[in-house]
Amino acid sequence: MTTFRIAPSILSADFARLGEEVRNVVAAGADIIHFDVMDNHYVPNLTVGPLVCQAIRPHVQVPIDVHLMVKPVDRIIPDFAKAGANIITFHPEASDHVDRSLQLIRDNGCKAGLVFNPATPLSYLDHVMDKVDMILIMSVNPGFGGQSFIPQALKKIAEARRRIDESGRDIMLEVDGGIKIDNIKAAAEAGADTFVAGSAIFGQPDYKAVIDAMRGQLASL
Ligand SMILES: O=C(CO)[C@H](O)[C@H](O)COP(=O)(O)O
């Protein structure tokens, strides 16, 4: 049986009350905190860095999944590991040496992952599958919360699932962008097991109601 994980993205949280927000969303049933890092260079938006990751770390016991939308990648990895990240993912086109960046994440004690934008080919996985603990399929172009799910992502999730099954390894398959109660099942049926949701959860007053409804959609799978 598949273990499904709900990973609220803090991008849509109230940053003035971030500690309380992450505590509340974990109390509501979140399995992972998804931490979006944007640098106004690789993506046209600017968010938060290791200091903020360190600040929320004592508030939650669940894994913190750091999604680096930054270029260059390597010099910030040890800082996030020290700040309490458990999983660090990056975009392969933002790294000059993908294999080295994956190894660096693992050497710093974290699980490592690659992120694929809608137009980024999965062939980046061809020679590094043994160093990947998570594959993140973007179902929007990165940079902003609240965008609509791009349906072509479903085919890519299915292809990533095929590669994971073929590898025989336990690799998390995460989807990020426009995930809502009404499309989470389609993403799961395509093969995703970990679901990032920002505006769908933090945009509603009752986080538990949304997370429960998402789990309800997955219950029959
Ligand atoms: O990485 C991201 C954007 O680059 C966000 O995590 C993502 O878009 C989640 O927000 P929403 O659920 O509102 O689409």
UniProtKB/TrEMBL annotation:
Pathway listed: Carbohydrate degradation
Single GO MF annotation: D-ribulose-phosphate 3-epimerase activity
InterPro entries reported in the protein's UniProt record: Aldolase_TIM, Ribul_P_3_epim, Ribul_P_3_epim-like, RibuloseP-bd_barrel
PROSITE patterns (UniProt xref): RIBUL_P_3_EPIMER_1, RIBUL_P_3_EPIMER_2
Enzyme Commission identifier(s): 5.1.3.1
One Pfam family of this chain: Ribul_P_3_epim
Superkingdom assignment: Bacteria
GO BP, sorted A to Z: pentose catabolic process; pentose-phosphate shunt; reductive pentose-phosphate cycle
Keyword Acyltransferase part of the UniProt annotation: no
Cofactor: Mn(2+); Zn(2+); a divalent metal cation; Co(2+)
Keywords: Calvin cycle, Carbohydrate metabolism, Cobalt, Isomerase, Manganese, Metal-binding, Zinc
Binding locations of substrate: 9, 67, 143-146, 176-178, 198-199
Active site annotation, chain numbering: 36 (proton acceptor), 176 (proton donor)
Textual note on the cofactor: Binds 1 divalent metal cation per subunit.
Reaction(s) catalysed (UniProt annotation): D-ribulose 5-phosphate = D-xylulose 5-phosphate
Known role: Catalyzes the reversible epimerization of D-ribulose 5-phosphate to D-xylulose 5-phosphate.
Name this polypeptide is given: Ribulose-phosphate 3-epimerase
Species this protein is from: Pseudoduganella guangdongensis
Name of the gene this protein is made from: rpe
